[in-house]
Amino acid sequence: xxxxxxxxxxxxxxxxxxxxxxxxxxxxxxxxxxxxxxxxxxxxxxxxxxxxxxxxxxxxxxxxxxxxxxxxxxxxxxxxxxxxxxxxxxxxxxxxxxxxxxxxxxxxxxxxxxxxxxxxxxxxxxxxxxxxxxxxxxxxxxxxxxxxxxxxxxxxxxxxxxxxxxxxxxxxxxxxxxxxxxxxxxxxxxxxxxxxxxxxxxxxxxxxxxxxxxxxxxxxxxxxxxxxxxxxxxxxxxxxxxxxxxxxxxxxxxxxxxxxxxxxxxxxxxxxxxxxxxxxxxxx
Length: 284
Ligand SMILES: O=C(O)CCC(=O)C(=O)O
Known about the structure:
13 strands; binds 2-oxoglutaric acid; alpha+beta; 28% helix; 284 residues; 9-stranded antiparallel sheet
């Protein structure tokens, strides 16, 4: 399979993303699902569920734990099954190599969980608007582990928005993290429309880090689990001021087989970015 195809390259240039179906088999995706569900459903010693707390009405029951988790940051580098199948597996790296080169580092890794009925929205953002390190060269992927559908909160993209500059991200009263100005998003949707990224387990979408994207709450009875990562190169890591710790995936075209993954520390000091401005301050 020759991926990316000329059509996929073209779509990446034009719309800022492309989809590759069946990057992993359904069986491999189900194995990853098992690892994630096992993690979120297992009670741990530090958990302090309180049945009298109105914010935590189900305490530490498995159902409560499953409903609470939204994102497992850095979990994929702790699970050999996820690491070797996905982030550091041949099928994804073969694609990333065309965009990043033969020396591939992993900048971020996450599991994104939208539990049935309770999974919340991810606000409209550009990834590099959240990173705030000026990086437009890293390469993002998001792989469905459960089916991702309109009903359970699949990703939404504004096609072509990757050609826009990196915008200042702001906080509203109800923001869960920095986000694009809401009137700006509305205007962009009116201009460019909206694409819903529906995927089956093992299908993967790749996008440019300037691309405007969002996912709505999950009001359906079905869970929506995905894994995601951001690939970068040693040159970009050296230039970036904010993030200095990466994991090595490919060196000189060879897949790295170490577990735990080898760490790459880019030279220089990591400079923190400070809080996001409030939306009112940017309007003023
Ligand atoms: O999984 C989601 O709903 C959000 C994912 C996302 O925004 C990202 O990977 O940048």
